Amino acid sequence: MATTNRPDSPDRETLVQMYEIQNKIKTTDERFRSMLTSGQIQLIYYSPRGQECISAGYAVHLRPDDYVVTIYRGLHDHLAKGVPMRELWAEFLGRSTGTCKGKGGPMHITHPESGLVVTTGIVGSGIPIANGFGLAAQLAGTDQVTVVNFGDGASNIGAFHEGMNMAAVWKLPVIFLCQNNLYGEHTPMSMSTGVEYISERAAAYGMPGVTVNGNDPVAMWHAAGEAIARARAGEGPTLIEARTYRFYGHLMGDAMEYMPKEERKAAMAADPVPAFRAWLLENGHATEAQLAEIEDKIVAMVDDAVEFAMNSPEPSLDELYTDVYEEITK
Amino acid sequence: MTTTEPRIIPMGIALNEAMDIAMGLDEKVFLLGEDIAEPSGGVYKITKGLSTKYGTHRVRKTPISEAAIIGAAVGAAIAGYKPVAEIMIMDFIAVCLDQITNHAAKIRYMSGGQTTVPMVIRTSAGAGRQFGAQHSEMLEAWAVHTPGLKVVVPSNPADAKGLLISSIFDPDPVLFVEPMLMYWDPQYACDVPVGDNRIPLGKANIVREGKDVTVISYGKQVHDAVKAADILAAEGVSVEVIDLRTLVPLDEATVLASVSKTKRAVVVHEAVTRCGFGAELSSRIHEELFGTLAAPVARVGGQNTPVPYAKNLETAFVPQVADIVAAIKSLNK
């Protein structure tokens, strides 16, 4: 049982909301993988399965006008921030009804109305851009915050260093959320990273750093809540390292030879989503009927989104030339 | 009838005026870059006085972190601001190229037009001051090769001012290349209009009319092209000189109309010749006008080497007036 029992735990409504987000991610991911495996769809897919609790834990603290920046393994962040299921599926399938008219694809999901402002396919590159959103909020005098998600591998790229330093110097309202799933592509963290905890690196920039069990929804909720409150209050950035595990390797089709079988088996046995479900029931935070209703609703939502996306047209060929510049050019 | 005294000022002051005007017009415009605030006002003094006038929140000194500078500009632009980022010297673009080409340039496209990046990257460029191989390059071709970016290279103070104001209010990311040697050298100073003299992007300037050959250039080399035209005029050759001003968008119509008339063209730039912008322009002229040309389009550009340090080698790298004269003459053989 990963979930912490604390007297200052979130209220029941928030707990159930977090479960709903987790379940939405898990159900969507499972459908993608089954459709990919059965050959119904073809696309490059980076499964976030195993990392659901992190996104749920921070997203419930955010308003629609707060910004989220994420990476190619970003489905969990997209859904947690509220990107609509239909448009998300349609974009993954390259359809004109997608969030980006089918022109961005899974690695570039963008939905400003939800505050999901950037999804990048370049490791670490979202970090400097997140500072720009933080700077915009600071200049405008709003209390909007920006959460930028990246992996443990990104903490070894130059953009991380430049971005973290600038955020600290300018006291930007940015939460640097390292979703540490212990692997950068096919290389374990122990072979690529000189510190045991990514959060140790925060000290080098003069900002608070914390490591949290990202698979513990309540602990994650607390860590995110504290960092977001500090940012909203104008007290500057925080580095959160949320420890987790990715169940299905770097991308779909990965043979995962570099992940010890026993390690993966143990992580999947401790699947945080069903564990949280059981914890909610055991502690009387939700009833079986209530959770079953949520799960059924999500299955229906995914069914509807799949149908919507599969029946949507591809973009018209004219779209090749639009959105390069404001004016259409060839 | 009133006459206005010409106001002869160098490009450094004209650029400062452009930013001053843009910041005064729109509070969403802000500047960021290394050393740009007071007391220095930038290593070339281009932003002198602006942090005093508008505050250090809008004229922001940054760490020496080019990727962080451009990244912050990209994010702020998406969020509704109009950042003007200064990259001190064009060679340093290499340090932040991911933010420029993968993000600033592609975000409008990747998001299906939902998010846009209206920002300017100002950078100084060019050889001639013995700064060596890492502080002297003209790299505009990198940007031209990246759909989504606009590329501006002014050749005089009045254009620099008018084009920079337009760039700041353009809805797309603009790489604004400032020929370093022209900042403060009085020989390049000219009459610059007071106030907002916006010049649209994508409009070339016919600097000098002629009928025998068209020389197409931009930036500092426009002045060399005019000198070459003066020399050849004495020999009875009439040279038309076109200043492109902006490479993207490109005023192809003006170029093609001129070459249709003269039937001969020379493309001149300081950047390395191989795969330089001249290669693209020459190719376009051949594609459109092959059958009517009296001679193949000639290119005059930098040598295919890094920029050397020693004065004599540096001079040998940079195309000279004599090279332009020779290229024009070669078309008439």
Give the quaternary arrangement of the chains. heterodimer
What is the radius of gyration of chain B?
20 Å
**How does the overall form of chain B come out from the CA principal axes?**
globular
User: Counting H and I runs of at least 4 residues, what is the number of helices of chain A?
Assistant: 11
Number of strands of chain A: 8
| Helix percentage of chain A | 40-55%
Q: pLDDT below 50 for ≥5 consecutive residues: which ranges of chain A?
A: none
Biggest interface and its residues per chain? A-B, 46 and 43 residues
Structural shape of chain A: globular
Number of strands of chain B: 14
Main pleated-sheet profile of chain B: 7 strands, mixed
Strand content of chain A: 5-15%
- How many structural domains can be distinguished in the coordinates of chain B? 2
Task: Explain what the structure shows.
The complex is a heterodimer of chains A (330) and B (333). Chain A has 330 residues and is of the alpha/beta class. Chain A has one domain: 3-Layer(aba) Sandwich (Rossmann fold). Chain A is built from eleven helices and eight strands. Chain A has helices at residues 12-37, 52-59, 75-81, 85-92, 126-140, 158-169, 189-192, 217-232, 261-269, 272-282, 288-310, and strands at 67-71, 116-120, 146-151, 174-180, 183-184, 187-188, 209-213, 238-243. In chain A, the strands form two sheets. A six-stranded parallel β-sheet of chain A has the order 2-1-3-4-8-7, sandwiched between helices. Chain A has a two-stranded antiparallel ribbon with strand order 5-6. In chain A, helix 8 links the parallel strand 7 and strand 8. In chain A, helix 1 (12-37) packs antiparallel against helix 10, helix 1 (12-37) packs across helix 11 (288-310) and helix 4 crosses helix 11. Chain A is globular and about 50 Å long. The N and C termini of chain A lie far apart (58 Å). The mean pLDDT of chain A is 96. By secondary structure, chain B is an alpha/beta fold. Chain B has two domains: 8-191, Rossmann fold, CATH 3.40.50; 205-331, Rossmann fold. Chain B has twelve helices and 14 strands. Chain B has helices at 11-25, 50-54, 66-78, 97-104, 107-110, 140-144, 157-168, 221-233, 252-262, 277-289, 311-317, 321-331; strands at 8-9, 29-33, 59-61, 82-89, 120-125, 150-152, 174-179, 190-191, 205-208, 213-217, 239-243, 246-248, 265-272, 298-302. In chain B, strands 3-2-4-5-7-6-12 form a seven-stranded mixed β-sheet, sandwiched between helices. Chain B has a five-stranded mixed β-sheet with strand order 9-11-10-13-14, sandwiched between helices. Chain B has a two-stranded antiparallel ribbon with strand order 1-8. In chain B, helix 3 (66-78) runs parallel beside helix 4 (97-104). The chains are: A alpha/beta (330), B alpha/beta (333).
